[in-house]
């Protein structure tokens, strides 16, 4: 099973980001655009594993408060001059960083390690090449994303709205030639006192 932990986004914000993606899409037909049903904020990628029950049990121990998230702005990894990933920015207070740290701490005994460096929340809209922020040998920046950058420069900074996350989720990624499909396996409540998990049909 290919698993990851993430936050979902409210339908209204998803619709606004989808409209923005559709506005930018014609500028870069040469890159892979993310389907709106796949929009989420990845907290930790776990990869291929058979430890589903252990992971679910570990995440039940995570205690964290609801998180206010503002979706605004857009940018590129690794930088605007050599873009490979196009993303929407996410602003949050220290509660998001606390959740990321708590999830990492809960999963560490199972052998899962979070990527090194600070957690930078973002919502990926498009990828080119390997889709990694850092290039692999022989990989070049996407000219289409450079055109997206030029188009963005003529627009006011986008603002998609604010929401409060009351749960985080464990997802399974199903890979296929048509692109990945994400299945929710369990939801974990965010509240100050304690957390619990619920199965998702």
Give the SSE string: EHEEHEEHEHEEEE
CATH superfamily caption: Cyclic phosphodiesterase
CATH class bucket: Alpha Beta
Shape label? globular
Number of strands: 10
The tally of helices reads 4
Distance between the termini: 17 Å
Segments where pLDDT lies below 50 for 5+ residues? Answer: 194-201
Structural class: alpha+beta
| Assembly category | single chain
Topology:
Layout: E1 2-7, H1 11-24, E2 32-33, E3 41-48, H2 52-60, E4 67-77, E5 85-92, H3 94-107, E6 122-127, H4 143-152, E7 159-165, E8 167-174, E9 181-189, E10 197-199
Antiparallel strand pairs: 1-3, 1-8, 2-6, 4-5, 4-7, 5-6, 8-9, 9-10
Defining key terms:
201 residues, alpha+beta, five-stranded antiparallel sheet, 4 helices
Q: How is this structure best described in words?
A:
With 201 residues, the chain is of the alpha+beta class. The chain has one domain (2-199): Alpha-Beta Complex (Cyclic Phosphodiesterase, Chain: A), CATH 3.90.1140.10. Helix content is 23%, strand content 34%. It is built from 4 helices and 10 strands; from the N terminus they run E-H-E-E-H-E-E-H-E-H-E-E-E-E. The radius of gyration is 17 Å and the shape is globular. The model is unreliable at 194-201 (pLDDT under 50).
